[in-house]
Amino acid sequence: MATGTTNVGFEEKLWLAADKMRSNMDAAEYKHVVLGLIFLKYVSDSFEEKYKKLLADGYGDEEDRDEYLADNIFWVPKEARWENIKSHATNPDIGEVIDKAMETIEKENDTLKGVLTKNYSRKELDKTRLGELVTLFSNIEVGSTAAQERDVLGRVYEYFLSKFASAEGKLGGEFYTPSCIVRTLVEMIEPFEGQIFDPACGSGGMFCQSARFVKEHQGNVRDISIFGQESNPTTWKLAKMNLAIRGLEANLGKHNADSFHDDQHKTLKANYILANPPFNISDWGGERLQDDVRWRYGVPPVGNANYAWLQHMIHHLNPAGGVAGTVLANGSLSSNTSNEGEIRKNMVNGDVVECIVSMPGQLFYSTGIPVSLWILRKGKTDRTKQKILFIDARNLGHMVDRKTRELSEEDIQKIALTYQNWRQGKEYEDIKGFCKEASLEDVSGQEYVLTPGRYVGIAEEEEDGIPFEDKMNKLTTELYDLFETSQELEKQIRKNLEAIGYGI
């Protein structure tokens, strides 16, 4: 594999090579081994490139930390650099060398304290295979300027996260939201500048896609401020690493914490919220939060956190046009369990619901539950006040394997442009079976059920030009042929049964 290769399939080839070394290790455990090494390679590559540049410029003093900090480069002592680690790849002490490197990097960089994986020396980890992984990753550049411009690391990291999520099944949903869903939300709400918040941030995918959106539109990532929260301690560390390798500064709270019971950003009023909270959580501790200030539209049922998440996000939105894009199970669109229907009614009448998108099934590795996108906004424009856009995208996407569907870039743009054109009042029209603008009166008439299919209707079938009589003759001929085939099969089955003494 050539150094810095970024050809099509590069990520897949790297994954296949790394996965061969997994042996009997669970994907959940192997994930941290692999991603930790990729992170180590990244910080080392970045440091080495800067070090060589300083030497070429005549500085000669690698201990001038300010030169590295100015370029947002982590400080990496000699014993933690990849060349030293690679030199131990075939030695039995490779695990201890990597652990020491991780400990040293954490000690020298405050923002990484308590974040990195440091158990490579444990007995259960095959040191021969660990050394092979080190050799494999030695052949790619991920931290150099050229590699960063091609987003080699971002591509590899995101691809590996998706593959681990697939391998882990339901557990994978705790840290990874499929990229096509994230991209759809980002393209819809356009987080170009301001504060971006994710109260259930997983591994930080929403933030990474937001930064990518800014760069693709010639913006400056320094114009966005990232705030997040994650309850799972391991996933919280994964998010810190994922953002660090992209050079994104973020406030993910002082520690991992539950958004409902230990809100790490109580005073935050964000311009943008992007989230994929866990669906239908029943043990979220709602009985201890009955009088919470966040429940403006009604107290969420203790048996389901869906409407707690929605109201938590609304609470954290900037009142002057703050917008949230989130993913929820379809049940939240119509359920009347406890007082969910009343909360939904109050949200609609409060004019904070702007758009609902029904998504295709099988997009998630972790669940087959059908989902929808909610776009919530405070301070709607005159164009969208007292209105909700419904989009039925269930027929979009394509199967990438037997279990998983994916939206193409064309699908994503179709959804995003429909929403944007509607908001801006240009080139929008209702399309039967796909999109419909509804008034709050229309929604009231549907008893505040927000399922898009109720509003968009059924797409009209295209006329194929074949006369009805001809079509019926063809269909009935085919049907009679099937009847004859069925009778022949029945005769053959009876004959075979008689031959073995089971005739009827």
Portion of residues within helices: 40-55%
Compute the number of helices. 17
Radius of gyration: 27 Å
In the predicted model, the low-confidence regions spanning at least 5 consecutive residues are 1-8
The rounded distance between the terminal residues' Cα atoms is 67 Å
- Elements, N to C (H/E): HHHHHHHHHEHEHEEHEHEEEEEHEHHH
State the assembly state of the protein chains: single chain
Q: Mind summarizing the main beta sheet?
A: 9 strands, mixed
**In which order are the strands of the major sheet placed?**
3-2-1-4-5-7-6-8-11
What is the overall silhouette? globular
Q: In CATH, what is the class of the largest domain?
A: Alpha Beta
Report the count of strand segments: 11
Summarize the helices and strands and which ones pair or pack.
Layout: H1 10-19, H2 27-56, H3 65-69, H4 82-87, H5 94-108, H6 127-138, H7 145-149, H8 152-168, H9 179-189, E1 194-198, H10 205-216, E2 224-228, H11 233-244, E3 250-251, E4 272-275, H12 306-315, E5 323-329, H13 340-349, E6 353-358, E7 371-377, E8 387-392, E9 398-399, E10 405-406, H14 409-424, E11 435-439, H15 440-445, H16 453-456, H17 468-499
Helix pairs in contact: 1-8, 2-6, 2-8, 9-10, 9-14
